[in-house]
Amino acid sequence: MKYLTNVHAENRTLKELFDADPSRAHRYVVSVAGLRVDWSRQPVTDEILQSLRSAARAADVSDRFRSLIAGEHVNATEDRAVLHMALRGNRSASYEVDGLNVMDDIHGELSRMKSFVDEVRANPRITDIVNIGIGGSDLGPAMAAQALAGDAHPRLKAHFVSNIDAADIESVLQQVRPETTLFVIVSKTFGTLETLTNANVARQWLVEALGEAAVAEHFAAVSTAREKVAAFGIGADRTFGFWDWVGGRYSLWSAVGLSLMLLIGPERFAEFLDGAREIDSHMIETLIDADRLDDNVVVTLALIGVLHRNVLNRPTKAVIPYVHELRRFPAYLQQLDMESNGKSVTHNGDEVDGATGPVIWGEPGTNGQHAFFQLLHQGTDIIPVDFIGVARPRHERIEQHDALFANLLAQAQALAFGRPLPNAPHRNFAGNRPSTLILAERLDARTLGQLIALYEHIVFVQGVMWGINSFDQWGVELGKELANALAPALSNDGVDLEHIEDPSTRSAIEWYRKNRSK
Ligand code: F6P
């Protein structure tokens, strides 16, 4: 990769690096906002970090970040600005899109959300919120609602429906009652098949029980396409908007967070935005206000990822939260990272000259330890790991939490330093397997905001290093188009299959037709 020609891999093992310089145990631990970030178990030295940071300078990371926050149309293939940072900006901030300050619009919508949320939270007739959306209109709110369940209004329960598989909505409808349910339909485009299908099922279910007039009281919507929402029958007073300069996977900070705000309340939601803004401030202070790229924690983490991907050829990365409430965080990150950086052409359409986004995967600790950690410790691939943990849990079983945290540390230790048993190869732990520790005092709305924003900016910096557009997602389009084209042939035996050129698909459809109504 063009900026990385001067970046070389370290020959020494992690153990040798620590032996040579024990001070890395504190020199490579930094604080950003409330987070303690420890990359001492990564295969880096001062020299490697310096060469990586020179590469980031050569790639103009600071300038690209300046373009981003200036509202330039950095998402060129969709001709859009990318300003999710503005969503968590103070009212006095001056984010502009096409010459217009967007802060009044953002805070106007936030205060409409707040009034609606206050009204619903004060209404004892509503006990269940059902968020219907998919991708960025589901993963963020669902992950965050689970992460912050401890802050939830005692009367309210949130449910999330995303899949076109009717088993999803069926299972939720079995748990709720029409009289006490508020459906929040979330779709940036209001044209997504899964969401509209499920929204129509919910509508019909409600109308059958309570009549057409109940739709007004039991539905709300979040979208950039207000006319389509109106056509669906949801009133303007219950429709919350956002803007085309907010990508779906970056939209949790906008009205897409409505279900989350309903659950945790406007104050906690504001703290969530505060946390993200603290990470934004770190970016601005070190890249824009001053030339302090070396002090930028996000940039360093992003560059360590690039080192793994491009210099050490590591195609996947595991993210393991040792916080049960964050069990959906890896799934959320999959969309954030893989939909953003799973690209193989550069901005001008040329093929990229190296690997781009890794496969992101993970499960919570300690569960993962009893499943795939075998491969992390002794498999033939080296898989970098991000461990996420907190010092204080929400519950009061402190000793159990000590055991959890001990496991987090033990895994990082075992991966890094191993336990050589040359005479017992099956029990030999070679070690030298890298990880980063990201720790917070506790998981609350603010730290969740910090954590998400940290990863958002990492994805951005890596996209710059790879010269790709992290903000489009054309790769999801073909499958949608083909599914629409195939659907009639599945439902109707009379549809001629001759027009389907691909014989393997034709034969699978024949099998499906034979079996679907047995
Ligand atoms: O299919 C991908 C995608 O476009 C995501 O980027 C997006 O978050 C999701 O679909 C849902 O889209 P919408 O919010 O428009 O329904």
Would you mind describing this structure in some detail?
With about 525 residues, this protein is α/β, with parallel strands linked by helices. It is built from 19 helices and 13 strands. It has helices at about 15-20, 25, 45-60, 60-70, 85, 105-120, 140-145, 165-175, 195-210, 215-220, 225-230, 260-290, 295-310, 330-340, 375-380, 400-415, 445-465, 475-490, 505-515; strands at about 30, 35-40, 95, 100, 130, 155-160, 180-185, 220-225, 240, 315-320, 360, 385-390, 435-440. Strands 1-2-13-12-10-11 form a six-stranded mixed β-sheet. Strands 6-5-7-8-9 form a five-stranded parallel β-sheet, sandwiched between helices. Strands 3-4 form a two-stranded antiparallel ribbon. α6 (about 105-120) runs antiparallel to α12. The protein is globular and about 75 Å long. The mean pLDDT is about 95. The protein binds 6-O-phosphono-beta-D-fructofuranose.
In short:
The protein is an alpha/beta fold and 518 residues long. Helix content is 46%, strand content 12%.
The assigned CATH architecture of the largest domain is 3-Layer(aba) Sandwich
Could you tell me the mean pLDDT? 97
Percentage of β-strand residues? 5-15%
Shape: globular
Task: Provide the CATH top-level class of the largest domain.
Answer: Alpha Beta
Count the strands? 13
Largest sheet: 6 strands, mixed
